[in-house]
Every structure is written in structure tokens, then in C-alpha cells.
Amino acid sequence: MNVYGKIIKSVTEVRTVSQHMSALGKFMADTEDHQLYNLIQNSIFDLQFQMRNCIGRPIPTSLMFAPTPALVQLVNYCAYHKQARKPEWQVLAERHGWSPPEKRKPDTASAAAHHSRFK
Q1: CA angle 21, 27, 31 (to 5 degrees)
Q2: Tens-digit pLDDT profile for residues 65-118
């Protein structure tokens, strides 16, 4: 599972807010994708606000039970890249202009000539 799938899984798991913040912080530290980094950072800011304004003991919950706009953006971004089935390095490389090499079928006429030349 790529990082995008792991983030979606982490967000949907039932944990306390501090555990969610810790898990997202680990993803934030590991990623080289600046867009993903910023989305995680915004989600953590929202969770910090929720934690500061929370009264009573921490109750485990899934972040998707009452998602914030920042969290929805994070999940949508991850879902898009998860569906594309591309690893993080490929997403970053394509963003900077790289494209995968095309698979070419050998030209049969030139392949036959090349093959007969070396018999």
C-alpha cells in the first residue's frame, strides 16, 4: 500500500485526537510531496484547535465522523493518487516533468534485417 492509502486508512481508524495527530505527523515527516505536506499540516492545525477546545477525557473517534474542510481536502488528494496507483516518487517526478518511457513494439522489417545480418 502506498503512502496515500496509508493516510486514508489512518484517518478512518478509531483513535484519540492526539493519536491521530501523532500518526499524521509521522506521515508529514516522511513525505517529500509538498502538497501532501501542506494538507497534512492544515489537518493537524484543525486537530490542535479541536484538542484545545475539548472538555473532558479524550474519546476515540474516526476523523471521518465529522471531517473538517482541511481533512476532506487531504482525503480527496490521497484518494485521487491512490486510485492512480502511482507511488509517491512517480507522482513527484511527473509533477516535475518526467514521463514514463513508452513501450515500443519492435519494427518487424528492421528486426528481421538486423537478425539476418548476424546469423
Answers
A1: 145
A2: 888 899 999 999 999 988 888 888 888 888 888 877 776 665 555 555 555 555
Q: Is 15 helix (H, G, I), strand (E, B) or coil?
A: strand
Length of the chain: 119
d(CA 36, CA 73): 10
3-state DSSP assignment of residue 64: coil
Integer Cα distance of 74 and 28 in angstroms = 12
Local structure of 61: helix, strand or coil: strand
- Distance of CA 10 to CAs 42, 55, 70, 76, 83, Å? 16, 24, 15, 14, 17
Question: Residue written as cell 508529514?
Answer: 28
